[in-house]
Amino acid sequence: MTTNGAVPESPAVVRRLRSASSESLVALVEKFEDLQTVLRCCERLVGELAPESGTPDPVAVEAVWTMALLSYARCFSAGDAGAALTEEDLTTAVPNGEVVEWHQVLTQLRDHHADPLVNPRERFSVGVTQDQDGVATGVAITSVRQPLVDDLTVRQTGAIAYALSGLVNARIEAQQELIFGELQALAREDLDQLEPIDVGHDPTGS
Questions:
Q1: Whose CA is closest to 121, among 67, 72, 66?
Q2: Are 143 and 135 in contact (CB under 8 A)?
Q3: Strands (E) located in the chain
Q4: Spatial CB neighbours of 178, under 8 Å, sequence gap ≥ 6
Q5: Taking a C-beta distance cutoff of 8 angstroms, is the pair 143, 125 a contact?
Q6: Is 161 left (phi over 0), alpha (psi -120 to 50) or beta?
Q7: ∠ Cα 81 87 93 (to 5°)
Q8: Tell me: the pLDDT tens digits for 76-87?
């Protein structure tokens, strides 16, 4: 974090915090990263679905859209540290429009695309073929292709993710200030006992 608007120098050492407040910060950062993933997915989809791009690749569209839906819905799931977003957060971030209704549609779509038992892209039926005399002649498999996500849905999803990113970012900054205040009360010997983090290799960056 920065203090008084100054650019911080590279720290001599970074030590891991294992407190309730630090876990809450981790949960917030994870939510922010998921929302950024939604934004990147929507940007990719807008380009893929643009008329000038020609026929969209259905595999790419489904893969990117599914990632966007999973990332979005995860922001509203509470882990051990809480910090889950709520419908109240939606109306705070996007005070105008039917944002809750859009949110409910997105969570339903997430369930549809993440269903382990149902094919999300095609519906199949089995029928019997008959000749002109009505005699069974074979078995037919028919299918109905589900439409790809449309540009409007993608753009609306991106707009919601963008607004929520601002809300979550403000919470991250406030939580950083809270933790920094807690740390100022710790003695040097207490800080030195904390586990150091190799910031060049730590996979979480926490």
A1: 66
A2: no
A3: 122-130, 136-145
A4: 21
A5: yes
A6: alpha
A7: 95
A8: 987 666 678 999
Mean pLDDT score, 25-31: 92
pTM: 0.81
For 206, the 3-state DSSP assignment is coil
pLDDT band at 61 (very low <50, low <70, confident <90, very high): very high
d(CA 161, CA 93): 9
Spell out the domain ranges in the chain: 20-192
Q: How far apart are the first and last CA of the chain?
A: 13
- C-alpha 36/C-alpha 31 separation (Å) is 9
pLDDT of residue 205: 47
Tell me the two tokens of residue 59: 């595999």
Residue pair 181/123 in contact (Cβ under 8 Å)? The answer is: no
Copy the structure tokens of residue 193.
């006992």
Q: How far apart are CA 182 and CA 18, in angstroms?
A: 13
C-alpha span between 7 and 51 (Å, rounded): 44
Give tens-digit pLDDT for 92-139: 999 988 899 999 999 999 999 999 888 888 899 999 999 999 999 999
